[in-house]
Specification:
Length: 504
């Protein structure tokens, strides 16, 4: 079952205008005016204009009369489409192999088999919306079984995201207004005159009288929304994207045949990459079936490569996910993310010691959906929880080290845990402490190691102090605990005790 995401960008046109003209005050209401003959109407409004009651479709003269100081800009569909295409290409590199523009203010993508790479459908949608918001662009995103259903809900809901459960399309769209059916304005007006208000009412009406009066368009849109008729998504492609194709006179379907032609496509793609001095980081295989539907597979790599054997293996490992249906009539292989790659001398095991390369393991795990692959790197900080950071598993070593005189535990708690301690202040080690409901008597202790706050980073740490102790209980287990404060001055800390690590 395909899963389609529709992204609605209601302020795309006004955002483009503000970026092009920074002199427009941020608080000024801004609208875009479209013309149809002598009629002028609002085709887009920003958030400021929406707050004062303006909306898409309102007459331009009325809007100008209602709001003093309203900034009105003539519509530029070509510039809006160019901005939408740039966002669509970005989404193509981040979320799915099948992404297309949905003019004038939307993006549509087929995320079948891709949502798990983003942590699931809900996390994928929330992450998508948050990334648009970070760019200053409000967005609403809906995922469903069909393009029509996701399109309609994305333009009707108030929430930023919504997931339509598989098989629940009919219930989700029943109350949607007729505007969400993507029909012409004249047809919508005529349907309203006849008393229709929602998609559910129209879907429950016999099809023949509607087709006789309005033609087949209403039935086609209803069938697309409810999933009775396929609505393929034509993926966006730019001149910069390197892509190779193979069309078949007779449809293919056997796994062995698919694997054979994938190998040939990879070889052709690598030749194109070599000619341009590039390596691929993300490769998309697009499968065009005879029933006019599309499937897609995505293979990513940790670093740019153009190794035919390795790229072929990554795609062959996922052939089982291809459903050929009644047959495949075309295969396309696109390098949707590339980086410069120079030819390098291969290491000879007879002369030189070869370094262990783990990128192949990272590629395999990443293509299986394991996204939390990282390694730890040191950071120049005395504060324990700030002394390491997560970096890419293939990030180069920067040689940065930080001298540690005192030993550090093998396991550091994600957050220091509050404990109850019996100890003499200010510098004596604990006699006993209670952690997670169990009291432990201290047999041996070493410390204190005083760590000061990083006042040059945070003014709140100007006088902050921690006194760390390494303690061993009666069972031989060793812990790393600290007191917040110097044990004398209340300004240095709360004087509460915490367990921060456990030694092996």
């Amino acid at each position: 079952m395909p899963r389609v995401v529709s992204v609605f960008l209601p302020t795309l046109a006004t955002d483009r205008i503000r970026r092009a003209d920074p002199s427009i005050p941020a608080e000024t209401p801004l609208v875009v005016v479209a013309r149809s003959g002598s009629k002028r109407w609002l085709s887009a409004v920003d958030q400021n204009a929406a707050k004062v009651g303006l909306h898409v479709g309102m007459a331009g003269a009325k809007a100008q009369a209602l709001v003093q100081g309203l900034r009105m800009v003539d519509a530029d569909p070509a510039a809006d489409l160019a901005a939408l295409e740039r966002l669509t290409v970005w989404a193509l590199s981040q979320y799915s192999p099948v992404v297309a523009t949905d003019p004038p203010d939307g993006i549509v993508m087929d995320t079948e088999g891709a949502a798990h790479l983003q942590g699931g459908e809900e996390l994928m949608l929330s992450g998508l919306v948050n990334r648009f918001r970070a760019r200053g662009l409000p967005a609403r995103a809906v995922i469903g079984d069909t393009w029509g259903a996701a399109f309609g809900l994305a333009r009707s809901i108030r929430a930023e995201t919504k997931v339509i459960p598989i098989g629940k399309t009919a219930d989700a769209v029943a109350r949607l207004p007729l505007l969400t059916l993507r029909l012409s304005a004249e047809t919508i007006v005529s349907l309203r005159t006849l008393g229709f208000k929602t998609v559910g009412e129209l879907a429950a009406t016999p099809r023949a009288p509607l087709a006789l009066r309005f033609g087949p368009e209403i039935g086609r849109r209803l069938d697309q929304m409810f999933g009775r008729v396929a609505e393929p998504i034509d993926p966006i492609r730019t001149p910069e994207i390197i892509e190779v194709h193979r069309a078949f006179a007779e449809p293919i379907g056997a796994a062995e045949t698919i694997a054979k032609y994938i190998s040939r496509l990879v070889a052709a793609l690598c030749l194109e990459l070599q000619a341009k001095g590039l390596g691929v980081r993300r490769t998309d295989l697009i499968v065009h079936r005879v029933d006019n539907s599309i499937q897609a597979l995505r293979a990513g790599t940790a670093k740019p490569v153009r190794n035919v054997a390795w790229l072929t293996k990554l795609l062959h490992d996922r052939i089982e996910k291809i459903d050929p249906g009644f047959g495949i009539e075309k295969l396309s292989l696109a390098a949707t993310m590339v980086e410069p790659l120079d030819d390098t001398q291969m290491v000879s095991s007879l002369v030189e010691a070869a370094d262990v390369d783990v990128t192949s393991l990272i590629d395999v795990l990443g293509n299986r959906g394991t996204q939390r692959i990282y390694r730890l790197a040191p950071v120049a900080s005395d504060v324990p929880e700030r002394s390491v950071q997560r970096v890419s598993p293939i990030a180069e070593e920067d040689g940065q080290t930080w001298p540690m005189i005192w030993p550090r535990p093998m396991r550091l708690m994600e957050h220091p845990e509050l404990i109850e301690v019996i100890a003499l202040l200010p510098d004596h080690p604990p006699v006993s402490f209670t952690w997670r409901g169990k009291r432990r008597r201290v047999k041996r202790a070493d410390g204190p190691e005083r760590i000061f706050g990083e006042w040059w980073l945070r003014t709140s740490e100007w006088t902050a102090v921690r006194d760390y102790f390494t303690v061993e209980d009666e069972t031989g287990e060793r812990y790393w605990i600290y007191r917040s404060g110097d044990g004398v001055d209340a300004e240095t800390g709360s004087h509460k005790w915490f367990l921060h690590g456990v030694f092996a």
